[in-house]
Amino acid sequence: MPSKAAIIQPILMAAVMAFLMTALITWLNLGFPPDYLRKWLTAFVIAWPAAAVAAYIAIPIAKRLTGRIVGFLEARGL
Fold first, then answer.
1. Distance CA 70, CA 62 (A)
2. 20-24, long-range: CB within 8 Å, 24+ apart, which pairs?
3. Rounded CA gap, 18 and 10, in Å?
4. Is 62:68 a contact under the CB 8 Å cutoff?
5. CA gap 19, 16 in Å, rounded
6. Could you tell me which residues come within 8 angstroms of residue 10 by beta carbon, excluding any fewer than 6 positions away?
7. How many CB atoms within 10 Å of residue 8?
8. What is the pTM of this model?
9. 3-state SS track over the chain
10. N or C: the chain end with fewer CB closer than 10 Å?
11. CA distance 54 to 36
């Protein structure tokens, strides 16, 4: 059974990433219209759950790839 941290961490990481990315992309696409906050929050509410699911998929893959890259670098003395 996963630890509580292993369950909570991807959700929080996804929240931070979705928060920043939706704010940036909404601004790039729309500038700062009067309803910017509403449009950004709508994008965030949609993006956060999608980002959380993606984090649960990506974190194990990233850990494995990191291990392989570090092993490759260490084998070559880098």
1. 12
2. 21/47, 22/47
3. 12
4. no
5. 5
6. 52, 55, 56, 59
7. 11
8. 0.76
9. CCCHHHHHHHHHHHHHHHHHHHHHHHHHHHCCCCCHHHHHHHHHHHHHHHHHHHHHHHHHHHHHHHHHHHHHHHHCCC
10. N
11. 26
pLDDT digits (tens, 9 = 90+) for 4-13: 888 899 999 9
The residue with tokens 């909404």 is: 26
Residue reference for tokens 């509580």: 4
Residue among 69, 55, 72 at smallest CA distance from 10: 55
